[in-house]
C-alpha cells in the first residue's frame, strides 16, 4: 500500500536526520495517514479512503466529502477518488462556475 493521500496526493518527502555532531543521514518524512470512513450524502453510502489528517480537516471545513470532491482538482485525486467525484457529479449535476464580480 503506497504512502499517499487519496484526496490531496501528499506523499513521503526526503530530508536529513541531523545528529548532535552535525552528521547528516538520509531519512523519509511520511505523511500522517488514517483510514477514514466518509458518508456521501449524494451517493447514499459510506466510502472508505486512506487520507492525511490535513485532508480530513479540509473535508470538514468544506462541508463534507461531496462538497470537497466537487471543488477538488482532478489531477491530485487518486483513481478511486476521481471515480467518486464523477459519480457525485452525475448524481448532483455539475456546479455552475462562479464568476467574480468586477
Automatic annotation (TrEMBL):
Mention any Pfam family matching this sequence.
Ribosomal_L28
Q: Which SUPFAM superfamilies match?
A: L28p-like (SSF143800)
Gene3D superfamilies in the cross-refs = Ribosomal protein L28/L24
Region described as Disordered: spans on this chain = 1-21
Q: Which GO terms describe its biological process?
A: translation
Can you tell me where the transmembrane regions are?
none
Q: Which domain of life is it from?
A: Bacteria
Gene Ontology molecular function terms on file: structural constituent of ribosome
Q: Which GO terms describe its cellular component?
A: cytosolic large ribosomal subunit
Keyword annotations for this protein, in alphabetical order, are: Ribonucleoprotein, Ribosomal protein
Similarity-based family = Belongs to the bacterial ribosomal protein bL28 family.
Q: What is this protein called?
A: Large ribosomal subunit protein bL28
Organism (species):
Bradyrhizobium macuxiense
What gene name is given for the protein in this entry? Answer: rpmB
Amino acid at each position: 500500500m503506497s504512502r499517499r493521500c487519496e484526496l490531496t496526493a501528499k506523499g513521503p518527502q526526503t530530508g536529513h536526520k541531523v545528529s548532535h555532531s552535525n552528521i547528516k543521514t538520509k531519512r523519509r518524512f511520511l505523511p500522517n495517514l488514517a483510514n477514514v470512513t466518509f458518508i456521501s450524502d449524494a451517493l447514499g453510502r459510506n466510502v472508505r479512503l486512506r487520507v492525511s489528517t490535513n485532508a480530513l480537516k479540509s473535508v470538514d471545513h468544506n462541508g463534507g466529502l461531496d462538497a470537497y470532491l466537487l471543488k477538488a482538482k482532478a489531477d491530485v485525486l487518486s483513481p478511486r477518488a476521481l471515480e467518486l467525484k464523477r459519480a457525485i457529479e452525475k448524481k448532483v449535476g455539475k456546479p455552475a462556475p462562479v464568476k467574480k464580480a468586477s
